[in-house]
Amino acid sequence: MLDIIVIFLLISGLIFFTGGAVGILRLPDFYTRLHPAGKMDTLGSLLMVLAVALFNLHDFTWNQLITSLKIMLIVLFVFVLSPTATHAIVDAGVRAGLKPWTKEKK
Amino acid sequence: MEVHAQIDTPRRPRRKASASGAARSHRPGLEILPRILTFFILFFLWLILSGQFDSFHITLGVISCLMVTYFSGDLLFPGTRKTGLIRLGFRVALYVPWLLYQVLMANFHILYLVFHPRMMDLIDPSIIRFQSRLKEELPLVIFANSITLTPGTITVYVSVDGDFQVHAIDRKSGEPLPGEMEARIIRAFKEV
């Protein structure tokens, strides 16, 4: 039962990572590419790390619980740091004078 | 911050009094709660990261957490607010699940966009400017990070008085700003 949940979480995380990669390839410019790059990875890593933490609790001991808590700490830091890093990259683009791509009004 | 009733004192004693008042607060009831919270957060991290539960390691942890709390106890909870911290933390913890739900929904929207065959017709990037009603630093940071965390919108620029510039990837992502997210943050941070 636990294995089914873990496999489901891993596969959904991989789907989000794949979407992020495809988005980086398909979108037109710097700013729009950051949308999938910075944030699909956040959710994908959240799901996959949750899966790892659950899989770690197979034989429930105190040490396994502490290890799972450490793994969850990684998620917390990623959740705080990923938007900040994305914002820093956007800010660098603005300072370099990149014009955002816009659709031509027809 | 102490208010002295000074009517006719010369300049030098007053400066000395204000300097000592800034260096050492004489109102322990307003300074002690953030430090206690900081100590417990640090000690929880110590227990998780060390994984040793014999008395020697716990004693070492208490000593080092006390030292760090003494040196930089006001690092985690800066600012003007010194009361209602526990209730504030509870409300922020209530905000987090809603944010996760929003992140999930927005992620599905971007997935749909990315795998759509005629993607170039759907996207319409634009820069949205709006004025936020939030005034304090911590709510502004949480709001900006929440905007960046929900796909489809990236915070480009925030000023101190809440002047936002947000890059939105299409109309649908940019519509709900500032909207419900800001209302929830205001509700979480309102004065008790």
Map the helices and strands.
The complex is a heterodimer of chains A (106) and B (192).
Chain A: H1 2-26, H2 30-56, H3 62-95
Helix pairs in contact in A: 1-2, 2-3
Chain B: H1 11-23, H2 28-50, H3 55-72, H4 85-115, H5 119-122, E1 126-131, H6 137-149, E2 153-158, E3 163-168, H7 171-174, H8 179-189
Antiparallel strand pairs in B: 1-3, 2-3
Description:
The complex is a heterodimer of chains A (106) and B (192). In chain A, 81% of the residues lie in helices and 0% in strands. Chain A has 3 helices and no strands. In chain A, helix 1 (2-26) runs antiparallel to helix 2 (30-56) and helix 2 runs antiparallel to helix 3 (62-95). Chain A is elongated and about 60 Å long. Chain A starts with a helix and ends in an 11-residue tail after the last helix. With 192 residues, chain B is mostly helical. Helices cover 61% and strands 9% of the residues of chain B. Chain B has 8 helices and 3 strands, in the order H-H-H-H-H-E-H-E-E-H-H. Chain B has a 3-stranded antiparallel beta sheet. Chain B is elongated. Chains A and B meet through helix 1, helix 2 and helix 3 of A and helix 4, helix 6 and strand 2 of B.
In brief:
The complex is a heterodimer of chains A (106) and B (192). Chain A is an all-alpha fold. Chain A is 81% helix and 0% strand.
